[in-house]
Fold each of these.
Amino acid sequence: MTETTIELPQTRSWRDIPQEVKSRAMSTGGKKRVALSGLRVVTFVAIAGITACGAWQIAGTLRESPTSKATVAASSPVKHLELRTRGVLDPEWLRQTLALPKNATLMELDLAQLRARLLVTGQVESAEVARKFPDTLAVELSERLPVVRWHTPKEDLLVARDGVAFAGFGYKVTELSELPWVEGAPPPAPGEAAKVSGMTAVTDLLAQARYNIPSLYARWRSVSVARLALDNELIVNTQDGPNLVFSTVDPLYPQLAKIDAVWSKLESLGRLAAAAELHVNGDRDVVMTPVRSLNGAVPVTAAGSIFSIPSLSNPQPKRKT
Amino acid sequence: MSSPTFIAAVEIGTSKVTVLVGEYTGRELAIIGHGECSSRGVIKGAVVDYKAASECTHSALELAERDAGEDIDCVFLAQTGGHLEGFYNEATVNVKASDNMIEAADIRTVCDLARAKQLPTGRMVVHHIRRPFRVDGRLVPTSPEHLVGQRLDVGYWTVHGQEQRLADNIHVIRGFNLEVRELVLASLASGHMVTTPEERQHGVLVLDIGAGTTDYVLYRDGVPHTTGVVPVGGTHLTNDLSIGLRLTEGQAEKLKTRHGSALVQVKDKSEKVWLDGNFAIGDRQFPRYAIEQIVAARTWELLEVVKKKLGGAFAPETCAAGVVLTGGTAKLPAIVECAGKVFGTAAHLGETPGWVAENLRDPGYHTALGLLYYGVNGQAERGVTQRRKTGFLSSVTRLFANS
């Protein structure tokens, strides 16, 4: 079936009349309206341009000079310092560390700079500084906890689990006296942050000893990391007995148990003073190195003693109740 | 909520230019401004002096903008003039579907055919007014889509005018840097204002007798059936008085307004009236009978011309709602009775709806009022109303569009 297409005549409508008129055909009012429309466009473009320029300028100024923020926000001077921490640092330390300029307003402060100033102190692990309008500077700290003390040529420091050494503000002397010392670590180089390597192993040993053999741990004076890198060994110096050598490769718990058993045996036999070193390794027995006499001879009673402790195959360390 | 559009309804008449500003929100239209100015450079609804017509129109627009306190966005312009003519064209199509169900394509085809008639050179369509569809001769007042029938008929009353005259009117508005959004026949605007849908359904003839022209529209079945313009109006009555009584136009206008009547009502033929009534030098007396006789004769003649032009389209039986008179000259005393006698049916003066403000309740504002409402309704029906959009980008676009 074919479909026929009918050509319809095109009728012209009034809408086909071009509405534009030339300027000379316009009245004064019409010309004024055209001029006003043009002016409106120019004004709009100008305002948009000025606004964009202004915004760009302000952004640039704020980026380059933080003190200019004070002019923008018009805040009042800092009156309060708010400190939140779970550690021992106090507001006085905070005030001294921040050393805020007198009558400084909140908007004048460079928070990043203040945060960096706080982090210089090794005791501060992380810090957050925030403005609390109208006049409070809020600081939230996370502090490092000391594990051991470290005697350096310059001063005595505290060392945290991550090895960072710090002066230790706010701690009481009695609290710190209970901490063992760490030895054998190279002294800090001038201009560099003081740090002790291998502190993770030391911390694990001390934590397990304090929990499992508290009476023996009370006699520990220091832990040496001198042989840690080479032999994977930590040497504990005790108050009135032999040095204890622990392997960091083997599990600590059996080692502590064996040492505790041998120590008790020696103590009961009255031979504790004769031992210079008790060396324990995971599967091996505890080897006691006797004290050498002044002339170098080894006392007969203690020479080459090897304590076989079959009953300690599954040792149960004594726990403080 | 959408931002409103400010529409101006402009009627460039022979005696005055009227501008009404409407605030259209998409749902409601509120009149917020009004400007009026004595007309110059316009004769019988046609611009004959572009500069003078522009000046008075722009003055009225400025007044209206000032009164509204808002910038006008676009214009609905009333169109009248003796150059406007109309014709009826009908088309028929056979329904294509095998089940004889009328589809949108059938409707489109029959409408295109009915509208497609070659106009003489220099003529342009102002309105295509569709009459109701017929399916197998049965009248369908709404859309015939999905009805079943074999033959679909539709007719269009096409109003067309001279291109130059239409362009002159549009350019007068454009000279004020405003866009003409709608061009509406003056009779359709005023007819829409003074008649109710029920009257239009029953059949009604609206006569808008202005100063220079008389526009008429005959409604049947709820839609405009026939429209027309007679280039005779109130100024012709004044002119006749001026010639008959040897007066200036101003004096004749004064006499017509004070003592004119569409029917000779005076009992005492020797009764005389003063021209000014202030007994100043030059104040004269004129026989009231002569004044009434001149005015009545011309009014009767005018109405007879309209009746003649309507021809067979008008019959008192098909025009149950009678004749409605509006326009400035409709205020002439006894014109209602005169129209009743000429058309042989009831006649009454067009009433302004109650919600229109007191200062706009004169019959002279019916065209401008109707222009706003007819224009807005027409645009809403076509779904092409361009509301002012909100938002930054739309504002910027509008800003540049106005320039």
Amino acid sequence: MTSPLADVQNSLQELFNRNPKDLSDEDVLKICEILRAQKGAFDEEETKPKAKKKPATPDLNLEDLGL
Amino acid sequence: MNSSFSSQQHLLQIAWDATSLDLFKTCPRKYQLSIIYGKSSRDESVHLTFGILYHEAQNLFEKILHEPYKESREQAMIQVVRWLLESTWDFSLGRPWDSGDSNKNRFTLVRSFVWHALHYEKDVAKTLIIDGRPATELSFQYQTSKKSLDGEPYIICGHLDRLVETNGQVFDLDYKTTKYNVLSQEFFEFYSPDNQMSLYSFAGKIIYNTQLQGIIIDAAQIMVGFTRFRRGFTQRTPGQIEEWYRETTDYWLPLAESCARRQYWPMNDTACGRYGGCQFRGICGKDPKTRDEWLEASFKTRVWDPLKVRGDI
């Protein structure tokens, strides 16, 4: 029995291996939705406090660019 | 036929973009092999293909979002993902593009585009609209006052990725894809001084005559399991832009012309190890008599014409 995560990965791989001309808009949307979920998981991991994390430069805040 | 070269001196480049100038400044021999001979390794070709498609996807996305199409963000995303999938599919062989690179490949390309669109969903940097169109992929050619010995005026050319506006101020936004850690302290420090960013600052101020406040570097760190985004900022004062222009026209271009007329581009052997090692290191490390054979055997040939092509090496 495969895990839900592996199922999603297989489904994504199957869509990527298909001739893009055969993909419907729903198929492409499904790709976007899976990637959105993967980004959500990555962002969650990124924001978790990490032990001994190197100090990072702050992201550019465009609103502060009042030059 | 390379339209950026002189019609009189066939080895003399007249139209210079940031890539050509970067290469010449780094090492004249590297410039000779890459631009004059047009040699490109498989590795460089992957980075170039990936970079061009990433840029084109961003450009297409912006166009679809704005007039006259004005699609919803979701619809625009679907269209661009479909375009990317088709652009990376070999229809004659019936299979996807195989880059052979674990970081830069078809999947990470689509993922990076989608993640970028999601990451900047509520972006405060709004694309500038010029003459009713989004200011993306702006090509520029500037005829300098400097002329070759035959009297041909040198041209500075290139493309600005996107002009954006925030708080009433205008910035050039430049997309970068990299394997380097964009969270590191040093990542954005490498852009000042930096030839490409100085050339773009020059273009923004002089050619487009915009009150360009600086350049936003929109970096995407492409890894096997994720793409991480971060933006940095770099700025040039009028004095710095003038210094860059003066050094380019008074020093670097005459030096390049001198090499072209002597048909000899010397090696800068202090630059071979930079950025993980020059792609031509294996060639330059061999006896001069055998280099041409090695070059033919290990590299592909392509034409780098800054007046036509789009991308960064």
